[in-house]
Amino acid sequence: MDKRNQVEGKVMSDIQNRIKQTIESSDVILFMKGTPDFPQCGFSGRAVQILKACGTEFSSVDVLADDDIRQGIKQYSSWPTIPQLYIKGEFVGGSDIILEMYEKGELQQKLST
């Protein structure tokens, strides 16, 4: 492995560790584009609306503010799109999965356990 690959590998490892610590620091966390008060895409906005409708408190990370996090979260979860919801450290899914779970009552149940 050349020196550049070693540096890139260390940077990715550091980002993955930061993401892991961020996820572990909150019971419910949404990686999204924008903020809950000002979502920057419709899918992130829908995820926020659903979480608010569930009456749950949640943390959020604006992936637009940090490109390393934006790319790193996709690798962390092996999920290609944003938003991404984590509940108690477990990856739940993106906007469509969140909506489907909400409509079936599964999301509310998962949030209450």
Task: Draw up the topology in text.
Layout: H1 3-24, E1 28-32, E2 34-35, E3 38-39, H2 42-53, E4 59-62, H3 67-77, E5 84-87, E6 90-93, H4 95-104, H5 106-112
Parallel strand pairs: 1-4
Antiparallel strand pairs: 1-5, 2-3, 5-6
Helix pairs in contact: 1-3, 2-4
Instruction: Find the structural class using helix and strand composition.
Output: alpha+beta
Query: What is the count of distinct domains?
Result: 1
Helices and strands, in N-to-C order?
Answer: HEEEHEHEEHH
Distance between the termini: 45 Å
What shape does the CA trace take?
Answer: globular
Note down, in words, how this protein is organized.
A four-stranded mixed sheet has the order 4-1-5-6, sandwiched between helices. A two-stranded antiparallel ribbon has the order 2-3. It has helices spanning 3-24, 42-53, 67-77, 95-104, 106-112; strands spanning 28-32, 34-35, 38-39, 59-62, 84-87, 90-93. A hairpin with a 2-residue loop joins strand 2 and strand 3 (38-39). It has a single domain, classed as Glutaredoxin, CATH 3.40.30. It has five helices and six strands, in the order αβββαβαββαα. The N and C termini lie far apart (45 Å). Helix content is 55%, strand content 19%. The protein has 113 residues and is α+β, with helices and mostly antiparallel strands.
Structure characteristics:
113 residues, Glutaredoxin, two-stranded antiparallel ribbon, 5 helices, 55% helix, globular
Give a short synopsis of this structure:
The chain has 113 residues and is an alpha+beta fold.
